[in-house]
Design goal:
Distance between the termini: 31 Å
Bound molecules: acetyl coenzyme *A
Strand order of the largest sheet: 1-2-3-4-5-14-6
Number of domains: 3
CATH architecture of the largest domain: 3-Layer(aba) Sandwich
Strand content: 25-35%
Number of helices: 12
Helix content: 25-40%
CATH topology of the largest domain: Aminopeptidase
CATH superfamily of the largest domain: Gcn5-related N-acetyltransferase (GNAT)
Shape: globular
Length: 409
C-alpha cells in the first residue's frame, strides 16, 4: 500500500463520513453530521488515500483553551478513523506524524484530544493530562455538610434551554478562564451543547435547565435531562443525567447541586465529565455516595517545547535543564533550560547537563497542571539526574484547580 496524505475538501465529505462510520461502527445521525460539518475547518483536515480510496482521516479544530495562567491557541485533534480493511498497517501513524508536523509549521505549540481508547495516543507523544470523574449518586445520599454555603440573595429559575442561551454563554465565558482544559465555544459548538434531537436525548427526554441568579444577574446554571421511570411497585425511580453545571461562586454552585440532588420522583443522579477536584466532593456529607468512577479526559501533546513551556504560568520558581525524548517530533528532542517564576517563563535550547530526562508525553501529561511529575517519577517514567530536580519541576508545573475540558469534541 502506498499512501498519499492531503487535506480533504467539501467534495470529499461523503467519503470522509463513510470512513468514520465504518471505523466507529456506528451511523452518524444527520443532525450530528451537519454540526460536525459546521465545526470543520477543511484546510485543517487530513485524509490518507490508498490510490483513490480514502482509507483514513483526521481533523483539527482551532481552539482557544485555558492553560495554567490563561488562554492559548490549541489544536483540538478529532475524528480520527481508519477503514477496518486498512487498520494496523501504519495509516494512523502516517496521519499523526504529518498532523504534528503541520501543527508545528503553523506555530501551534500544543495539541489536545479525547481518546476513544486510552492505549492509542501515548506512542505519538500525547500524555494523559486531565482526569474526569463519573458520579452515580442515590438521591437519598445527597445531604450536604452542615457548613455548606448558602446565600439568601440567590434564587433558582427554571428556563427553557433554547431561550436562555445568552445566560449560559455569559456564565460559561466568566468561568472559562478559571479551569485549565476549558475551551471557548463558538456558536456552532453551543448549538451542539444545546442540541436536543431525539438521538441527543438517549431516551432521557428533553434538555432541561436551571439558572442560579440574584438581582445582579446569573451566577450559574445546570443543564440536564430526566429519564422518568417507576418500579414494579409504582415507586418513583427517575434518573437525572447531568450534562454540565457551572457556578461562578461557591454558594451558586451549592444551590445548583442542591436542586439537582433533590428533584422529586428522581432516585439517582448521574454525572459524567466532572473534574477530579469537583467541589461537590466536599459538599456532600458522605462522599462515598458519589460512587465515583475515574476516567481520562484530555490527552495533551506538547508539539513545540520551546513555545509551549513559556506559554503557561508556573506555581513556583524553577530553573532546570530538561532532556526531552521525542521520536515523532525530532525538533523537541534535546535539552532545554526552563527558567520560570510566578511572573513568566523562558525556555531555551542548551547543551548543559540534564537535571531530568523525560519522554515528551510526560510534559504533555503535566502541561495542564493536574499530573504531578513526582508520581510519574515513582512510576519510573521520569529519570532524575540531579537530586531534587523532579520535585522542583513538579511543584512549579502543579496548578489549581485541576484541569478538565468536560465536553468531548
Ligand atoms: C481523537 C479521536 O478521534 S479518538 C478516535 C480514534 N478512532 C477510533 O477509535 C475508531 C476505530 N479505530 C480506528 O479507526 C483505528 O483502529 C485507529 C485509528 C485507532 C488506529 O489506526 P491504525 O491505522 O490501525 O493504526 P496504526 O497501524 O498506525 O498503528 C500504530 C500502532 O498503534 C497500535 N494501535 C493502534 N490502534 C490501537 C488500538 N485501538 N489498540 C491498541 N493498539 C493500537 C498498533 O498496533 C500499532 O502498534 P505497533 O507500532 O506496535 O505495530
Amino acid at each position: 500500500m502506498s499512501l498519499t496524505l492531503r487535506p480533504m475538501t467539501e467534495g470529499d465529505w461523503s467519503d470522509w463520513i463513510a470512513v468514520d462510520e465504518e471505523a466507529f461502527g456506528a451511523p452518524i445521525p444527520p443532525h450530528r453530521e451537519e454540526r460536525f460539518k459546521e465545526n470543520t475547518e477543511f484546510e485543517r483536515s487530513l485524509g490518507a488515500y490508498d490510490g483513490d480510496l480514502l482509507v483514513g482521516a483526521t481533523a483539527v479544530f482551532s481552539f482557544t483553551m485555558t492553560v495554567p495562567g490563561g488562554p492559548i491557541p490549541v489544536g483540538g485533534v478529532t475524528a480520527v478513523g481508519v477503514l477496518p480493511s486498512h487498520r494496523r498497517r501504519g495509516v494512523l501513524t502516517a496521519l499523526m506524524t504529518r498532523q504534528l508536523a503541520d501543527l508545528h509549521e503553523r506555530g501551534e505549540a500544543v495539541a489536545a484530544l479525547y481518546a476513544s481508547e486510552a492505549v492509542i495516543y501515548g506512542r505519538f507523544g500525547y500524555g494523559r493530562a486531565a482526569d474526569t470523574m463519573t458520579f452515580d449518586i442515590p438521591r437519598s445520599g445527597g445531604a450536604f455538610v452542615p457548613h455548606a454555603p448558602a446565600d439568601p440573595s440567590l434564587r433558582l429559575r427554571i428556563v427553557r434551554p433554547a431561550e436562555a442561551r445568552e445566560v449560559f454563554e455569559k456564565v460559561f465565558d466568566a468561568a472559562l478562564g478559571s479551569r485549565p482544559g476549558l475551551y471557548a465555544r463558538t456558536p456552532a459548538r453551543w448549538d451542539g451543547v444545546l442540541g436536543d434531537h431525539e438521538a441527543d436525548q438517549g431516551g432521557a427526554g428533553p434538555l432541561r435547565a436551571v439558572v442560579a441568579e440574584d438581582d445582579g444577574g446569573p451566577r450559574g446554571y445546570a443543564l440536564f435531562r430526566i429519564k422518568a421511570d417507576w418500579t414494579g411497585n409504582n415507586l418513583p425511580d427517575g434518573e437525572l443525567r447531568l450534562k454540565e453545571v457551572f457556578g461562578l461562586d461557591p454558594a451558586a454552585y451549592a444551590l445548583l447541586w442542591r436542586h439537582l440532588l433533590d428533584r422529586d420522583l428522581v432516585s439517582r443522579i448521574k454525572a459524567w465529565n466532572r473534574p477530579a477536584d469537583d467541589p461537590l466532593i466536599h459538599l456532600l456529607a458522605d462522599a462515598r455516595q458519589l460512587n465515583a468512577g475515574w476516567l481520562d479526559d484530555l490527552w495533551v501533546r506538547v508539539v513545540d517545547v520551546e513555545r509551549a513551556l513559556p506559554a503557561r504560568r508556573y506555581s513556583a520558581p524553577v530553573d532546570v535543564v530538561i532532556e526531552v525524548e521525542d521520536a515523532v517530533c525530532p525538533w523537541n528532542a534535546r535539552r532545554w533550560r526552563l527558567s520560570a517564576d510566578v511572573s513568566g517563563a523562558r525556555c531555551t535550547p542548551v547543551d548543559d547537563a540534564a537535571d531530568l530526562v523525560l519522554p515528551v508525553s510526560v510534559l504533555g501529561a503535566a502541561y495542564l497542571g493536574g499530573r504531578p511529575l513526582a508520581a510519574l517519577q515513582a512510576a519510573g517514567v521520569v529519570r532524575e539526574a540531579r537530586a531534587g530536580a523532579v520535585r522542583e519541576l513538579s511543584a512549579a508545573m502543579a496548578w489549581d484547580p485541576a484541569p478538565c475540558a468536560g465536553l468531548i469534541f
